[in-house]
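Handover notes (outgoing to incoming on-call)

Open items:
1. Hypoxanthine phosphoribosyltransferase: sequence verified, structure written out, both below. Nothing else pending on this one.
2. Nothing else urgent.
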Amino acid sequence: MYEGDIASVLLTEDEIQARVKELAVEIASRYPVGSPQGDLLLVGVLKGAIFFMTDLSRALPIPTQMEFMAVSSYGSSTSSSGVVRILKDLDKDIAGRNVLIVEDIIDSGLTLSWLMRNLSSRDPASLQVVTLLRKPDAVRTDVEVSMIGFDIPNEFVVGYGLDYAERYRDLPYIGTLDPKVYEGDGGM
Ligand code: PRP
Ligand code: MN
Ligand code: MG
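Hypoxanthine phosphoribosyltransferase structure tokens:
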């Protein structure tokens, strides 16, 4: 699938799954079962975090509930436009809940920094973040990221939820995109 488009495999399916299990253990140790705040509430950021969210929630040995938010800062470009839009908001009130944002990648940190501000204004009991991937630029942002799966180089990556122009999300691994795919795309 997509064979000529993927320049190299950065993280194999096995590497991803092994790290997801480790993150699940780490998360479970931070949230005691039976807390007065109720079950941990996972807030998955659509669409990129979809596979991380489903794998992580099933790897977690504690009861969790799920909410989803859809925001977009990228559109079909490979670099951030700086504009974050809510495409779908949470269905439920998160006041008084322990909330864990589940993201696939932090690149510029813009999406997450905006999301943290937005969700903390809704008065959760606690608000933390787990991201599968983090790129080098993310360290420049003020966002406190509690748990990180992998620090990766500054290359455009796709697969396991990550897209380019909505394609490649369905790959079970994470790979780098061959520049020929986006060359001639207006420098986006
Ligand atoms: C991507 C990715 C993160 C965000 C990271 O989402 O899934 O949510 O960008 O970039 P940043 O740190 O520079 O803000 P995108 O906006 O492409 O939407 P998608 O998840 O639907 O692909
Ligand atoms: Mn996203
Ligand atoms: Mg995207």
